Here is the input.
Amino acid sequence: MAKDAKTKPAPLDRVTWLAATNEARRAEAERLLGLFTDVTGWEPRLWGPTIAGFGR
Here is the structure.
């Protein structure tokens, strides 16, 4: 029997997620989130408390 994955996806609250980092990283993360959203066509999700990802 397969075990359940420890890391599960959750909706990304950009404001809360980005507030946890400094201003320079926040600006860079915003640009990357926009770029990855445009390229993949997916909205970002949280995988665990700190990892933003796209797709399944």
Observations:
- Residues 12-41 form one domain.
- The longest strand covers residues 9-11.
- The CA atoms of residues 17 and 50 lie 7 Å apart.
